[in-house]
Structure formats: C-alpha cells, structure tokens
C-alpha cells in the first residue's frame, strides 16, 4: 500500500532557500547598487522590449480569440457537468482581479 506521506525534495528546497537568502542579503547590504541595477533593468526592458512584448500579447490574444471561436473552442475538457456556471466563473475572475 502506498503511503500518503509526501516526501520533501531536500536538495530543491535547500538550493532555493540558499538562493533566496543570498539575494535578500545582497539587496540588504547594497541598497543603492540594487536600486541602480533595478532601474537599469527596468529601463532596458521598457525601452528595448516594450514594443515586442505588446506585439506578443496582441498575437496571443488573437490566437486565443481564434481558438475560442473556431471548432477547437467547443472541445470539452473532462467529463460531467461543470462545477460552476459560466456566469459564476466570470464573477470569480472579476473578483480575483
């Protein structure tokens, strides 16, 4: 019989924790350099990649609208009656932000 106890991935947790602590320590010890680096990254992303990101989002929205209105939009995922109605889903998305 399989045990219901979930095993923890110790190496993954350890590496993640060390990385988070290292980044937090570096940001705390060098606040001005951290702010300068963050501003440089922000400027690069917004000035250099801003238009590309907008075009990719527009293409993704076009693909989603195409898929929703094509024959693929009627594919049922799973069996049985949906747990929530379409209107309930809409209000959940609106309330979630």
TrEMBL record:
Record-linked PANTHER family: BCCT-FAMILY TRANSPORTER (PTHR30047:SF12), HIGH-AFFINITY CHOLINE TRANSPORT PROTEIN-RELATED (PTHR30047)
UniProt entry tagged with the keyword Translocase: no
Localisation: Cell membrane
Record-linked InterPro entries: BCCT_transptr
Protein name: Transporter, betaine/carnitine/choline transporter (BCCT) family protein
UniProt xrefs under Pfam families: BCCT (PF02028)
Origin species: human gut metagenome
Keywords noted in UniProt: Cell membrane, Membrane, Transmembrane, Transmembrane helix, Transport
Residues that span the membrane, as ranges: 47-68
Its membrane topology: Multi-pass membrane protein
GO CC annotation terms, alphabetical: plasma membrane
GO MF term list: transmembrane transporter activity
This protein's record includes keyword Cell membrane: yes
């Amino acid at each position: 019989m399989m045990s219901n106890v979930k095993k923890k991935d110790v190496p993954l947790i350890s590496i993640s924790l060390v990385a988070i602590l290292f980044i937090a320590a570096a940001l705390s010890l060098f606040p001005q350099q951290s702010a300068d680096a963050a501003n440089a990254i922000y400027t690069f992303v917004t000035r250099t990649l801003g238009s590309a990101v907008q075009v990719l989002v527009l293409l993704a929205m076009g693909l989603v609208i195409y898929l929703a209105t094509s024959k693929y939009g009627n594919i049922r995922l799973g069996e049985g009656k949906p747990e929530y109605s379409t209107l309930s889903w809409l209000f959940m998305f609106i309330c979630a932000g």
